Amino acid sequence: MHEEIDANFLADLFNRIAILLEIKGEDRFKINAYRRVAESLEKETRDIFELYREGKLMEIPGVGKAIAQKISEILESGKLEFYQRLTSEIPEKLIYLREVPEMGPKRIKAVWEKLGIDSVDKLEQAARQGKLRDLPGFGPKVEQKILDAILAIKERRLNRRFPLGEGWKLSELVTGRLSRCNGVVMSSPAGSLRRMKDTIGDLDILVAAKTEAADEVIRAFTELDMVEEVMLSGPTKTSVRFKDDLQCDLRIVEPSRWGTALQYFTGSQQHNVLLREVALKNNLSLSEYAVTDKASGREIVCASEGEVYRILGMSWIPPEIREGTIEIKLALKDGLPRLVELGDIKGDLQMHSTYSDGRRSIREMAEKALLLGRSYMLVTDHSQGLGVARGLSIERLRNQWREIDKLNEEFEGKLVILKGAEVEVKADGTLDYPDDVLGQLDVVVASIHSSLRQDKDRLTERYLKAVTHPLVHILAHPTGRLFGVREGANADWDIIFNAAASCKTFLEINAHPSRLDLSERHIRQAHALGCRFVVSTDAHDLHEEDYMIFGVSQARRAWLEARDIVNTLPLKEFMAQLKR
DNA sequence: GCCGTTTTCGGCCCGACTGTTTTCAGTCG
User: Is the entire prediction scored with pTM above 0.85?
Assistant: First the structure.
C-alpha cells in the first residue's frame, strides 16, 4: 500500500522530528529518544510491515508505546498527525540549516524568529550583509565561520564522507609520524575508522603520551604535509583539515588513561551514552579520563579498554558493533556472539593474475598468500567477454590450468591453488563460458560488470539466472557499487537473496576498499534470509591481498560469525560445501 | 519518550573548545 515506506524512511522521519523538537526547545531526553530510534531503524533489516503485523514494533531498541503507535499510524495511513502539527509550528525547511556547522538549534531558532531566515541561501545573504553578528549568541567571528561553511558546502568540500580504505591509509601515515615523537607510548585510530564503517566522516586519532610531550606531538601533527588548515587547537585536542578536505581530530591522553580514552573516542556516540547510563546505574560515572565512584569520588583509572567494560560488569565489546543498539544489553549477560576474525579466514576466493588484468603472476600471488597464512586460493581471472580486463579465451584458460597444476606440485600442499574464473553474467543472464568449461573449474564465481543500469525487473531476472545456475558457486561483489563512481545496482535484493539461500549460492563480501560489496546493510538482510557468505580480496596486486581485513570488518559489523562464512573452513570442508 | 534484579516515577553522559561573556552558552562529538 505505501510502497515507499520502509525502515530507512522512518529513520529519516524520526531524525527530522528530533531536529525540529530541538529547535522548538523540547526536553533533550525526549529528543534523544527519537534519535535513538532513528539509529535502530537504520540497522533494522526485518520488514517493518511484518513487525507491525506481528505486534513486534517494540522489539526495536528504543521503541516504546508512543513511538510504536506513531509507526503504526504511518504504516496504516501514510501520514503522521504529530508531524503535521509539529511542522505547522516549526517550518520543516529549518532542518536544512542544521547542515551548516556552527548552526545548532539555538542559533537556528534565533535567525528564524528574529530575521525570518528559513533557508541556507537566506542565511548566506544575511551573513554577507552583517546582519547575524548582532543577534544574541552570534558575533563577527561566528558570522564569518558560517559564511565560510556555507561556501564550503556549496563547493562540496564539507559534509563529504570518505571510503574506509582512504581513511585507513591516512591514519597509518598520521599514527606513523606521531609515534616517532618523543614520549609517545601509543597511538591508534578511533572513531568510525576503528569501528570500520565503510565510509568515514572524519578521522580520529588518539595518542598516549606524557603531558610534557604533548606540545611536540601537536606540532608534528599540525605540520604534517597534508594539513591545509588548523581548525582548533587546545592542550589536549587539536583539529585540522587535510588538503583533500578530510577533517582529522587528534586527542592526547596520559598513558595510564588509555583505556577510558580509547573507549570514549571510539564511540559511537549512542554507544557511549548507553554505556554511561549503565555506569550511573552502578553509582559510577564514566568519562574519557576515568571511571569515578560517585559516592566516594574515587577515580578508577583504566589503562586498557577491557578494564572499562569489566568494571561496568560486561564483556568487552568489539568496536565494529558499538552502535548503541543491543550490544550493551547482550554484553551485560555475556551474550555477545563470537564475531568472525581475520585469523579465521583460510582461503582467498577472488584473485587476479597477469592472465587477465592482474599485475602479478599466479606464482607471486600464491607466495604472498602463503605468507599471509592462507591454505588455499582461487584464481579468478576474467572470462573472455570482458575485453577491458583482457578476459581469457577458453584456450588461454586451459593454459592457465597447466600452470596451476605445476605450481600445486611445487607447493606440495602447503598452499592449494584452485582453478576458477570470474565469469561475466551477460546482459541476457547467460554466462560467458559454456557449461562444459564451467564444469571443469573447481569454483565458479559469477559477476556482473556491464549493463548495471538495466531496469529493475530485468536486472533482478538476470541476477536470478546467475544465482540459480547449477554451476555457479559464488556471486561476486553483488551490487556492483564503486565508491565515488556508482551506486549499487537497483534490483530486488529480497528475491535474489532468497534464491541464493535456497540454491546454496554463496554471496561474496568483496573486501576491496573501493567496493566493500555487499555492504553491511545488505549482509544483514541476506543473513536474515539464510544466505551464507565468502569474504574475498579481489586482489590484483600483492598488497591488495592484505585487504581481507576490510571485508572481515564489514561481516563483523553485520554480526556474522565464522560459521556464516564458508572460506573460514579448511579446504576439504570448504569444497564439501559447494553445490554439485 | 524510554526504561526498570535496588525504581512503573524519576531518572536520563560528559567534557573540550570557542566566542561572547563578565561567569557562561552554544556547538560538537
Answer: yes
